[in-house]
Amino acid sequence: MYPIMLELTGKKIVIVGGGKIALRKTLGILKAKGKVTLVAPIFLNEFNELDNIELIKTTYTPDHIKEAHLIFACTNSKAINQQIVNDASEHQWVNDCSQKENSDFYNMSTIEQGEYLLALSSYGKDPAAVKKKQEQLKKMFEE
Description:
Pathway: Porphyrin-containing compound metabolism; siroheme biosynthesis; sirohydrochlorin from precorrin-2: step 1/1. This protein has helices spanning 20-31, 78-87, 127-142, and strands at residues 12-16, 35-40, 53-57, 70-73, 93-96, 109-113, 116-120.
């Protein structure tokens, strides 16, 4: 894996799913000024409180990702997530939240301190350990 930071301003990002993982991804993308379109038959209520997102309340079809730069497959169905991966074009980057081996990229855990951003990753192997290390480092920076 090659760590990079992406400029998402104006980029079209499609998130398929309406649960907690989709919400977490949406909040991060909005912070980076990405344009988020979400596709799911049901969404958590928290999505209704967000600005600058498009909610499409329906089941996924390949047309939903046709114009996307980044795609997040965040459904609770491995079969649907796999279909999203299969439907993506070669030029599109996909993150399958249910099967890391299907992903072109992963999100890293981050700590922001003033003008600095520290990113942590276990290469997708142990997110719980990364979260623990993140908390330790946050405490260290606060001291």
